[in-house]
Amino acid sequence: SFQDLQGVAIDDKYFYLADDMANKIYVWEGLPDKNTNPKFVISADGPGQLSSDGIYLVNAAPGDKTPGGDVRIYRINSLSSQSRPISLGGAGKFNRPLCALVSRNHLFLADYGINRALIWNNIEDAIAGKNADVVLGAENLQDTNPEIGKNKLFWPSSMAFDGSYLWV
Predict the structure, then answer these.
(1) Where are the strands (E) in 44-96, listed by range?
(2) pLDDT for 30-56, tens place per residue?
C-alpha cells in the first residue's frame, strides 16, 4: 500500500513510483498489475517527481527533508535496492526543485523557490558540478529575486519537453 505518491515515470525497462511519506522509490520491470511486487525498492528521503530516459532516473526532492531540496540522479544500468544517487546539491544551489526532467541527454530543472528553470545541455555536465547552460526566468545564477514580468518565472513547478519545445 502507498502513503503519498509524488512521482511516476516509465522507460523501456522499468516503471517507477515515488512515495514521499514512505521515503521509497518502487521499481517494477514493465507495467505492474495488482499482484506484481516491485523488482526492488530504493530508499530515498522525500522523493518527489520522477523522470527517466532509459539511461538515468532523475528524482526532484523539493526539500521537506533536505534543506533547499535536492536533485538525485540514478544510473539505470546499476539500479538495485542498494542504489545510492548522485546528488546535485541542496541548500545554496536550489530552493525547492519541484521538477527535474531528463530527455535527450538534457537535464531540465524547475527551481520553484528561486523562480527559475535551469537547463544543462548534457546531463553529465550537471553530474560533474558544472553550472547550467541556460537560466530561464532570471538574469543569471545569482539572480534569486522573485518577480513577475517579461522573461521571468513565478514558482515554476512542472516541465515538459518534446524534443523541440520546452513548457514550464
Answers:
(1) 50-52, 56-61, 70-75, 86-87
(2) 999 999 999 999 999 889 999 999 999
